[in-house]
Amino acid sequence: MFGLLQNGRGLYQNRLPGWHFVGLVNNTSLLARGALITGVWFVTMRGLLPGLLMKERFDNIRVVLVNTSHPGNIGAAARAIKNMGLERLFLVAPQEFPADRAVWRAANAVDVLNRAVVVETLEEAIGDCGLVIGSSARERSIPWPSLEPRECGERMWREAADHQVALVFGREDRGLTNDELQKCTYHVHIPSNPEYSSLNLAAAVQVLTYEVRMAALSGSKTASAGDNEWDIPPAKMAELELYYVHLEQALVDLGFHDRANPRQTMTRLRRLFNRIRLDSMELSILRGVLTAIQNAVFRFEKTVSKDETSPSGADDPS
Ligand code: SAH
């Protein structure tokens, strides 16, 4: 029997009547080996799985630098990103890139630079994202839903389980424009010295990506992917932009909004819908409502103009 345990071929050499039993022992040996392999696999996967899950979520997170003027800052930002385990860098109309200075400052993060996606507009960089957080060194004229850096890291990490998320940084000299900030779901401000609040671009990238990493390290021990409660995914940024174009046109058609004298109507409406965080189903319903309103306005205008041109309509002496 021991011989059989060591050598499976022993089954055929055994001439005793109890070979079924011996066969069972042989199967047990196979089972034992299977259990051992499964055990090793399980232990290995238990070690690797958090890392794999973390990598998968990190792949859904991108850092976007808008219109950066110093290539050294792009390199330093690439390094900061890689230090924190992130990899995806988007550059919106960088003033000088590729550049040697970027490579020098990136040190061992040249791979992040080489894979950086260069685009012309912020819309292109964030169009497929369900969450966009814009960072700002100072308060802006219109308050916007804002997060503390810690909340920012936690939210990015949580939502990255379900969709693409972006963290956006502005120009060294002027930050992000109001238009760009209004394309963001939330703003984040690092509570720096109010008398000198503006961090170097790469330093700001470092602080905020550190918070994402902290969220990942604490979250990966307990929370699993998909802990967000909503049943429908949030509308993507590109869908939202189309909605705002449609909304503005419908308000013009209704006579409510004047593009020549816009005041802050669209900004405030953007902020309103932003606060709600429309999901993609709600967004398509609203677009249907806008189309119905436009059709009603169109029918109404057609009836009025027919009445005005018809001989029996205007100037009826009776
Ligand atoms: N002079 C610019 C600041 C540019 S710093 C201004 O006043 O707006 C470049 C970028 O780094 C900013 O656009 C922002 O994305 C980020 N940044 C710098 N300091 C920050 C802070 N305290 N909080 C959040 N982001 C900051």
The average pLDDT score comes to 86
What is the CATH level 1 assignment of the largest domain? Alpha Beta
Strand content: 5-15%
Remind me, CATH topology of the largest domain? Answer: Alpha/beta knot
Q: Could you spell the SSE succession in H and E letters?
A: HHHEHEHHEHEEHEHEHHHH
> What ligands are attached or bound here?
S-adenosyl-L-homocysteine
Question: What's the number of helices?
Answer: 13
Number of strands: 7
Q: In angstroms, what is the radius of gyration?
A: 30 Å
**What is the global morphology?**
globular
Largest sheet, spatial ordering of strands: 3-2-1-6-4-7-5
How many structural domains in the coordinates? Answer: 3
The helix-and-strand class reads alpha/beta
Supply the CATH superfamily name of the largest domain.
Answer: SPOUT methyltransferase, trefoil knot domain
| Uncertain stretches of 5 or more adjacent residues | 1-23, 221-226, 314-318
CATH architectural group of the largest domain? 3-Layer(aba) Sandwich
Largest sheet composition: 7 strands, parallel
Q: Give the helix level as a range of percent.
A: 55-70%
From the N-terminal CA to the C-terminal CA, the straight-line distance is 118 Å
